[in-house]
Amino acid sequence: MPKKANSKKPEGILLDIDAELDYWRQTMPESEFRAMSMSFTRFIPTIKFGYDCYLMYHQQPLAEILPTLRDRYRDRVPVSDQLDWRWADQIVRHAWGRMSAS
């Protein structure tokens, strides 16, 4: 499991999950995810997982913790809500990139 970074001064991060879900709802039809032919609601647990991971581990390089995040996804997201990891990985990367850019 990734280690939470120890910091003397906590970094404040704000996330408007409703705005982020709106972003995903609007962009998914034009993205590679349209090939999955699933309703948007099937993606929500994975999208939220991606943002949760960023909020918990943003002080570590994503490339270093991705293998551990795969295990965390398998263990923490209900099986009925999981996507194939190749898709979940892309969602995590994209969510991470959006948060890193803000």
Mind explaining what this structure looks like?
The chain has helices at 17-27, 44-57, 62-76, 85-101. By secondary structure, the chain is an all-alpha fold. The two termini are 26 Å apart. It is globular. Helices cover 56% and strands 0% of the residues. It has a domain at 42-102. It has four helices and no strands. Mean pLDDT is 87; it is low at 1-10.
End-to-end gap: 26 Å
Low-confidence stretches: 1-10
Note the main sheet: none
Mean pLDDT, nearest integer?
87
Number of helices: 4
Fold blueprint:
Layout: H1 17-27, H2 44-57, H3 62-76, H4 85-101
Helix pairs in contact: 2-3, 2-4, 3-4
Kindly list the characteristics that best describe this protein.
102 residues, mainly alpha, 4 helices, 56% helix, 0% strand, disordered N terminus
Brief summary of the model shown:
The protein has helices at 17-27, 44-57, 62-76, 85-101. By secondary structure, the protein is mostly helical.
